[in-house]
Amino acid sequence: MRRWRRADLALGTLTGAAVGKLLPAPETIGLDAVFPAILLALVIPAFKTALR
To answer: Is 27 within 8 Å of 21 (Cβ atoms)?
Structure first.
């Protein structure tokens, strides 16, 4: 089972690298502010639940 997990990780990494090269830079399509916003959207609720 672990062998397949490693194969899945390798396949996903290779696919992401190949697709990433096809995409333009995030700044050119206006996504440069979206990535930090997504990070904050994921981190803030985690801190709220950790403080309870």
So the answer is: no
The DSSP result for 1-52, as a single string, is -HHHHHHHHHHHHHHHHHHHHHSPPGGGGT-TTHHHHHHHHHHHHHHHHHH-
CA distance 30 to 28: 6
C-beta separation of 48 from 42 below 8 A: no
Q: What is the pTM of this model?
A: 0.47
Q: Give per-residue pLDDT as tens, 1-52.
A: 566 678 889 999 999 999 999 988 878 888 888 888 999 999 999 888 877 7
